């Protein structure tokens, strides 16, 4: 049990149900259209490669909100000691089916019990945007505490000012969740408040799949 538990998002069960509902379509779209597949997006791949080059030797890596495991599998292939975790059991079923060579488990980012300085790297790769605005800083602080000195976080998220209530996603599947968008400077600020030093920031314009986004990589000092 953690000494200071992270607040449980009020909508966690609703988000989990929605993620379960979209999981099959999401996994199918990654495979058939390349959506979310970093191999098809050179700048996203470049940031994941920079992350992998940096944390490769530092210790275990955790892909939080790994979905169908696309990035977990890529990092495994690159030789990293990586595992994936996701809120949605159905996402994890898909991840295990698509990438049987990888390690996956089911848990919310808000319920992880990560040891102090136990990780070389942690990812929040387009998986933290459902967290309420007052909960994300707590999750980032837990990530920072779990990183070894010199360990890195890489996080990507949707850019904007609003809390967008989604009623359908990924091919018209009915969902109920809120996408909490962040301005890049706010998102970087949260990461700094968590005790990490930003080392790179990549801004992405809207594309056929998604609105604008930002990727931030940050290091635990020491
Ligand atoms: C847009 S998908 C991204 C999946 C994966 N990172 C990728 O790039 O393909 C968002 C993922 O975050 C997961 N997720 C949402 N809230 C979460 C939470 N509180 N804890 C862990 N995972 C969560 C969803 O189940 C979903 O798999």
From TrEMBL:
Domain of life according to the entry: Bacteria
SUPFAM superfamilies referenced in this protein's UniProt entry, alphabetically: S-adenosyl-L-methionine-dependent methyltransferases (SSF53335)
GO process annotations (BP): antibiotic biosynthetic process; methylation
InterPro entries cross-referenced by the UniProt entry: Methyltransf_25, SAM-dependent_MTases_sf
Domain Methyltransferase: 61-151
GO MF terms, alphabetically ordered: methyltransferase activity
Keywords attached to this entry: Methyltransferase, Transferase
Protein name, as recorded: Class I SAM-dependent methyltransferase
Gene source species: Streptomyces misionensis
